[in-house]
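Long-time lurker. I teach an intro course on protein structure, and each term I like to show students one example going from raw sequence to a predicted 3D structure in token notation. This year I'd like something fresh instead of my usual example. Would anyone be willing to generate the tokens for the chain below so I can use it in lecture? Attribution to the forum is fine with me.
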Amino acid sequence: MALDLEGVREHVRSCCFPGDTGERVGIELEWLAVDLHDPSVHVGIDRSGPVLEAAGDLPGGSRITFEPGGQIELSGPPHDSATDACAAMEADVAAARAALEPTGIGLVGRGFDPARPHRRVLHEARYDAMERYFAREFPAGLSMMCRTASVQVNIDVGPPEVQATRWHLAHALNPVLAAAFANSPGAPGDHDGWRSARMGIWLDIDRTRTVPAEAAGDPVGDWTAYLLRARVMMIGEPDGTFRSLDEPLTFGEWMTKGYDGRRPTIDDLHYHQTTVFPPVRARGWLELRMVDSLPDPWWKVPVAVAHALLVDREAAEAASVAATPVAGWWREAGRDGLTDPDIARAAVECFDIALKAMPRLGEAGLVDVVDDFAERFVRRGRCPADDVRDGMA
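-- Reply from a regular --
Happy to contribute to a lecture. Here you go:
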């Protein structure tokens, strides 16, 4: 059955901003898979996959998947606290390392791989179509697919009375979190000078699907508008393959004009949503996607900080005041990190707010690692990329 505007809004209302969520938090970690003896070698899934499969289920319940360039992703289940989510993920990372390292494979927490050119080692119909789509207009797309990695923090959208403020705050915090955790310094000729080359790469591809949504105050309306304005990347065929489009077509245009004799269905909308990659994506929870991949133990810090600022009501109010002056400064965040004085000031304030809120949330066990990160980086106007550039990481 073909969709209309109300059908899209109803999908967003019921699936992306439901009224019965809790306050859970989940973690997804992407790691660059590297050969411990020769970092210039691409580690194929035919090498890492059997090792992880033979190791069996991970103790914390994470699901293992692979990105197109061989990056290894651990996706943990949701937990009621950041402490529990981090403890489960820590056990899973340790188990994955223990399986991989004897075979000469290491997990590197960095947002961009500067050493190896892009090479796709995962060949699936979805990624075949994605590569074709990017190749026509957005050559940086293949680097995004094959050379980038992130920490993704997933937080429930919360009860109806907080959803609008949580949605708005998640977007306001985007530059602060991106800058504080930037960990992918660019290479000569490839976003040289950027603290987060990963963000620079995202900004070089189709912006209808990578820039932040307009957080104007109505989450359902904001996210509906974003999905309608985003270009259609691919259309599924009955045989399980995907057709990438030869001409620009937004999802809204597909609804009103049709394409090749048909209009989109609810299944097409579901799939379309998996092909948009803004820094904050709504899926019944908020996916915070602006953080570069980080090494142990620093990946815990964005989980703890984002959870505290978004879930604790007092912290959320204070963080909104601190972050709003630099909301929308995502290019400055990716390029300059915390050398930008305004973003640095907001980051210090947000970390202090989070540290005060964490004991109220029962997250005292994560205070030390957050404070250590703040002391090493944030309070000094630095981010992990600065350590990499200085040869300290």
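Some talking points for your students: The mean pLDDT is 95. The beta strands are 25-35, 63-66, 72-75, 105-108, 150-156, 234-236, 242-244, 280-282, 285-292.
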